[in-house]
Write a structure and sequence with these properties.
Strand content: 25-35%
Order of helices and strands: EHEEHEHEEEHEHEHEEHHEHEEE
Number of helices: 9
Shape: elongated
Radius of gyration: 22 Å
Distance between the termini: 64 Å
Low-confidence stretches: 35-51
Largest sheet: 8 strands, mixed
Structural class: alpha/beta
Mean pLDDT: 85
Helix content: 25-40%
C-alpha cells in the first residue's frame, strides 16, 4: 500500500524531540538520514551519532490527513516546524531497494569488493565479500577507496600488515587476500573488532591470520606495511606511535584526511618517511611513504 512520508530538516539537538513527537502522532517508522554526505567515524558504544544536518523521515498510513498531522506536530513540539516536506510514496520491497544500492566495486587492477548477495563480476579476481554494516568501511567512501587502491598496487607477499583503526576490517582483509602473510587490526570500538571478525570469517580468513586488538593490547612490534584510515587530528597526534609501528624500509598509507588538512599531516610524518605525492579523491587525500 502507499504511504504518507514526512521529511523534516533538523539539527542533532532537535532529533529526540521530533522523533518522540512523530511517534506520538502515529508514525509507523522514523529514520535519520544524512543531508549532506558527511561521514561519521567510530561512534562510541551505545550512542546514535547524527550529522550536523540531518533529515528525519517518518512514514504514516496513506489515509493520514497532512494538515491535521502537521498541526498536532506543532502542538507537541511547542513551536514552528523546521523546514519540511510531505509526499505520498508507493510501497516497495524496502530490503531489495536497500540492497540494490550496493553493487560490486573494483579497486585497482585486481581487487573487488562484492556484497554477499551478488555474484562476483570476475570470479578469478581478488574478491572480498563485505556487506554494509555498523562499522565504518565498505569501500563506498573515498578514503577507503584510496587505501584499497594503494594496497592493490603493493607487493604484499610475505608481509605483516597493520590496519590501524580497522573499522569493518576491510583493509586488513584486502591485504590478506592480496597476499599478506598476516594482518593485525586495532580499533578503539569493540563493535568494529566484532565486525572485522565476522567479515574475516565470511572471507575464509582464519583468526590466527587476523588477530584483533584494542589499542592498549596491541603488540608493539613494527610491521612491514601499516595503513591508518582514521582522521587527520588523530593521525597528527598519534604520529610518533604510528611511526614506531612501521619497520625501517616499511610502507605507510594514511587517509581520512581532507585536502585542506594534507599539509599538516605530511608535516607530522616527513621527518621519518620519504613521502609520495599526495593522492586525492573527491576532496579527500591519501598520504603514503617509506620509513627511513
Amino acid at each position: 500500500m502507499p504511504w504518507l512520508q514526512v521529511r523534516l530538516a533538523i539539527s542533532p539537538e532537535q532529533a529526540q524531540t521530533y522523533e518522540d513527537a512523530l511517534l506520538g502522532v502515529g508514525a509507523v517508522s522514523v529514520t535519520f538520514m544524512d543531508a549532506e554526505d558527511q561521514p561519521i567515524f567510530e561512534p562510541d558504544l551505545g550512542t546514535t551519532p547524527l550529522w550536523s544536518n540531518t533529515h528525519l523521515l517518518a512514514l504514516f498510513d496513506a489515509d493520514t490527513d497532512p494538515d491535521s498531522l502537521l498541526a498536532h506536530l506543532q502542538l507537541l513540539t511547542g513551536g514552528a516546524l523546521p523546514e519540511h516536506q510531505i509526499e505520498r510514496i508507493e510501497d516497495q520491497d524496502w530490503e531489495r531497494s536497500w540492497m540494490d544500492n550496493f553493487q560490486p566495486m573494483r579497486f585497482g587492477r585486481r581487487l573487488w569488493i562484492v556484497p554477499s548477495w551478488h555474484q562476483a563480476p570476475e570470479p578469478d579476481a581478488v574478491n572480498l565479500l563485505l556487506d554494509p554494516g555498523l562499522a565504518f568501511g565498505t569501500g563506498t567512501h573515498p578514503t577507503t577507496a584510496l587505501c584499497l587502491e594503494w594496497l592493490d598496487g603493493q607487493d604484499l607477499h610475505g608481509c605483516r600488515v597493520l590496519d590501524f583503526g580497522c573499522g569493518s576490517g576491510i583493509l586488513a582483509i584486502a591485504a590478506l587476500l592480496l597476499g599478506a602473510a598476516q594482518a593485525l587490526g586495532t580499533d578503539i570500538d569493540p563493535q568494529a573488532l566484532e565486525a572485522s571478525r565476522d567479515n574475516a570469517s565470511r572471507n575464509g580468513i582464519e583468526p590466527a591470520r587476523l588477530p584483533l586488538y584494542l589499542p592498549a593490547d596491541l603488540p608493539p612490534q613494527p610491521a612491514e606495511v601499516v595503513v591508518a584510515n582514521i582522521l587527520a587530528g588523530p593521525l597528527v597526534a598519534l604520529a610518533p606511535q604510528i611511526t614506531s609501528l612501521v619497520k625501517p624500509g616499511g610502507r605507510l598509507a594514511l587517509s581520512g584526511i581532507l585536502a585542506e588538512q594534507a599539509d599538516e599531516v605530511r608535516a607530522a610524518y616527513r621527518d621519518a618517511f620519504d613521502l609520495d605525492p599526495t593522492a586525492m579523491k573527491d576532496g579527500w587525500v591519501r598520504i603514503s611513504g617509506v620509513r627511513r
